[in-house]
Amino acid sequence: MAARGIRTPAPAPAGAAQAPAPSRPARPAPSLRRFLARPEIEGSVTFVAFVLLFAGYGIWLGSSFLNIDDRLLDVHQNVPILLLGLAVMVTLVAGAFDLSVASMATLTTFLSIGLASKDGWPFGLVLVVCLAVGVAGGLINGFLVERLGVNTFIATLGTSGLFVGASKVYSSGTQLSPLPGHELPTWFTDVGSFSQKPPAAVMWVAVALAAVAAFAALERLKPAGRDARSWTVARVGIVAVVLLVLTVAANLPKIVDRCSYLVAVTIIVGAGMWILMRFTTYGRYLRAAGANRGAARLAGVHVQREVMKAFVLGGVLAALAGVLLGASQGSAAPDVAAGFLLPAFAAAFLSTVVFSTGQFTVWGTIIGGIFVVWTSQGLIIGGVAPQWTDVVNGVVLVAAVALSALMKRQKA
């Protein structure tokens, strides 16, 4: 019998669902997992993995791989790939793909050689025409994708055939080389030569710009709960330690002295692209359009116009890559840049996991492109046939995309 003054709850009817038992509090994630999930650690894992890979190459191959001049020569010879990586990256930021950049580079390689040597045009006008062709190609891509609504893959694949076809029509499908009496300007061939070096002051300014860029890029990796002042001090320390390691271990002064004009041009273009993408209204609008077109449109962003600008910028970078390819080779061969598309995309997607946690970045593209080149070159030095280069590039591209997707899924 129930005690007086205390109500006894009525028994629950048969078949009624029982109230769920109170859930246990979630167990905190292991400390190692929390540590690895920190932005500054997560964004550095891929970089550290490549450093360990190159250290393994050094142990395996010794001075055959750990040679500053040889590795700088690798970068010098692959500057067109790095610029094409930037061309791909700017359209990827906008949420689009540009499969025509390699064909545009092939076309402007032929134009930079042919218009000067075959047609006798003033070389200043030749450079203007090559860049104008890049602008026109970007406008065609942007119009097809944004105005006519053609799928970005189909549109840029079609224009890729158009550009490479135009190069074959112009050259009659043969190689173009300077003719006697119509040689390329000496300064142009010097730009493409590895033996010619820019003034050291220019390269040290480039190093300073790279240090500033690294300092600014580290802002995105600020740990949650870390106050701004202490993180600023930490960023200064990180950049200083990296510069010290490069000076002591990699002989930074020697690297600066051995850099060619093509490497200097790449750094200057990268610095300009970094400023454009990070500190201008256009860069913010482009990222907003790529992240969420509908929300960007509601926020007042003219999405179609901004994406078309991205295609134009990508076309100009691809045209510049072709011009510099002509400077380094001194001639133009059919499909000269056809093999650059895959490593260019690999470089762009590596930027999402090299000092980044899912975002496409300028310096990550350049660093990723260099890492792709060195990875393939190390295998070639070790005796692997050069035909395996495309396999390595494909593996790196798939791994970068998979890792980036995994990181985004974990944050969702």
From TrEMBL:
Localization per Swiss-Prot or TrEMBL: Cell membrane
InterPro entries: ABC_transp_permease
Annotated CDD domains: TM_PBP1_transp_AraH_like
Keywords (A to Z) from UniProt: Cell inner membrane, Cell membrane, Membrane, Transmembrane, Transmembrane helix, Transport
Keyword Lyase: no
Top-level taxon: Bacteria
Primary location: membrane
Residue stretches spanning the membrane: 41-61, 81-111, 123-144, 201-221, 233-253, 259-277, 310-330, 336-355, 362-385, 391-407
Recorded topology in the membrane: Multi-pass membrane protein
Compositional bias of kind Low complexity: 1-21
Stretch list, region Disordered: 1-28
Protein's recorded name: Autoinducer 2 import system permease protein LsrD
Organism: Paraconexibacter antarcticus
Taxonomic classification: Bacteria, Bacillati, Actinomycetota, Thermoleophilia, Solirubrobacterales
